[in-house]
Amino acid sequence: YDELTILDRLTLSAGVRYNYTNLTSRPNERTTPAPLTPDDLRLDTDFTSFTWNAGIVWAVIDELSVVANVGTGLKSPSISDTLSSGAFTYGVSVPSPDLDPEESTTYEVGVKSRFDRFNGELMVYYTDLRNLIESQPGFFAGSDFIDLNGNMTKDNDEQVYVKVNAGRAYI
Q1: Alpha carbon of residue 52 to chain centroid
Q2: Which of 1, 80, 127, 150 could form a disulfide with 171 if both were Cys (CB 3.0 to 4.6 A apart)?
Q3: What is the pTM of this model?
Q4: Residue 119 above 90 pLDDT?
């Protein structure tokens, strides 16, 4: 991260960050719940990326500045995102080892004031989220349900849910 004052009242800032995440899971037969196999829960995945930000501050007067910033972000899938499994209220979660990181770009613009009797900020933000990880009905081992009670019928609480990179959101 660095700042550069290019004019008396104009400052630029920029930064770059390298992100590295490793997810590793080495299950065995004893630690693997049925109907899963150790291969369903085995994971060794790396996520790498660069994120950055850039900003500008214009000091209109000593007590009032206009600011703008843009930056990117990344959230790697967690062990819970990729490997969580088990029954919950309305279905059965299964491993989703092929998830990609969630990515974001955030823009902000605003004013900052520092007067003798008043300090404050008014900022407007906009964030574009991509590859949002969400849980959706899906399939596991060729079936859309896991027969938890052994009745060979899909009951309301046996729907398979997988996590996927399906979402996009704006904040």
Answers
A1: 16
A2: 127
A3: 0.78
A4: yes
